[in-house]
Amino acid sequence: MSGIYIHIPFCIRKCKYCDFVSYADNPLVADYLYSLLKEIRLSKENIDKIDKNEYDTVFIGGGTPSVMPLKGIESIMNELSKFFNISNNAEISIECNPGTVDLSKLQEYKLSGINRLSLGLQSADDEILKRIGRIHTYAQYVESLDNARKAGFDNINTDIMHGLPRQTKTIYLDTIDKVCKLGVEHISSYSLILEENTLLYNEVMAGKEMLPDEDETYDMQDDGIKKLAEYGYIRYEVSNYSKHGRECRHNINYWENGEYLGLGLNSHSAMKLDEWTRWNNTSNLKNYIECLNKGKLPRENIEKISKNDEMFETVMVGFRMVNGIDISAFKKRYGISFEEVYESEIKELIGKHWLEINDERAKLTQKGMDMMNSALMCFIK
Ligand code: SF4
């Protein structure tokens, strides 16, 4: 499988916890769009291999892609289908924030070929939304979801978070109740990571804001997993839950260590060229635009990955999935079996009851998932 990721680095306002590459109220939106369209054309011309791939997924993420003018998203979709081989049944997603989309915008997304929406809610509690600097209320999320259904979207994700300021388990579980009852097909639930250089970090350090402690957050997550299961959402990755058959194909490709092409500011790519190769685009907005104005791709850190490292990457991302690694696919890709490469590591983890292997898959047990970092450390050669 292979996918295309497109980064739109603009937001209406910066959330207090956010350290992503995204700009609030930036005047360069039109220049960026022009450069991005140029990058799509140049990428196709630059690497033969990219021409040959059929892409099964496209993900327009951010930032907040839905702050782009409508014609912007349409022109990206048009340019992509002109220059890349996007498969007929591709999963094509866009991230939207409540309060930035109305019915006509969502209808236009649908017409341009987008068939999956990801709505960033984070919490159904308006007080918490305010505390973390989100631009919307819970009611606006419900309205956006309703409009998305009216526009014909039948594959919708909602992002929620645990470990937020002043969040209790009851508040978190209430968010899960509300979102599940609305019947979305997919839920991603991430734990807040307090990043330095964010407003929230400063507030917490100054004692102006309080986060739940590690045990409380773990407890929230644990009960959240149970509640999501009660509503019929299958946990298929550490932080991702879906109704049957509605797993995010784009992200599964990352966790299978598949090929992907990143376009846009600070996007990352991995591709089998003569060897497995990774690179990223510059994270400096002005450089990105200048580079493309000169007709050059804004790529940095092009790195050939050794076979050992590639195998380790496959293990590292594969064990995030509840079903773990497909061991016949591993052998097909590397010409050597998973059991041969990691004989002693497998013995050690099975001995600790952290790993299970059958004919088809190698996967971490619940205990192994809880100890994920230590489990992965064993595989570093
Ligand atoms: S909407 Fe997303 S990308 Fe934008 S500031 Fe908030 S968390 Fe960051």
Can you characterise this structure?
By secondary structure, the protein is α/β, with parallel strands linked by helices. A hairpin with a 2-residue loop joins β9 and β10. The chain contains 17 helices and 17 strands. α7 packs parallel to α9. It has two domains: 252 residues, TIM Barrel (Alpha-Beta Barrel); 54 residues, no CATH class. The mean pLDDT is 95. It is globular. Helix content is 43%, strand content 24%. The chain binds iron/sulfur cluster.
Query: Biggest sheet: strands, sense, closure?
Result: 9 strands, mixed
Helix content: 40-55%
Q: Percent of residues in beta strands?
A: 15-25%
Q: Which regions contain 5 or more consecutive residues with pLDDT less than 50? A: none
Number of domains: 2
Q: Any idea what the shape is? A: globular
Which class do the helix and strand fractions yield? alpha/beta
Task: Give the bound compounds.
Answer: iron/sulfur cluster
Condensed summary:
This protein is of the alpha/beta class and 381 residues long.
Map the helices and strands.
Elements: E1 2-8, E2 10-11, E3 23-24, H1 29-46, H2 48-52, E4 54-62, H3 70-83, E5 85-96, H4 103-111, E6 116-122, H5 126-131, H6 138-150, E7 156-162, H7 169-181, E8 186-191, H8 199-205, H9 214-230, E9 234-237, E10 240-242, H10 249-255, E11 259-263, E12 268-272, E13 276-281, H11 285-293, E14 299-304, H12 307-318, E15 325-326, H13 327-334, H14 338-341, H15 343-351, E16 355-357, E17 361-364, H16 366-370, H17 372-377
Parallel strand pairs: 1-4, 1-11, 2-3, 4-5, 5-6, 6-7, 7-8
Antiparallel strand pairs: 8-10, 9-10, 12-13, 13-14, 15-17, 16-17
Helix pairs in contact: 1-3, 1-11, 7-9
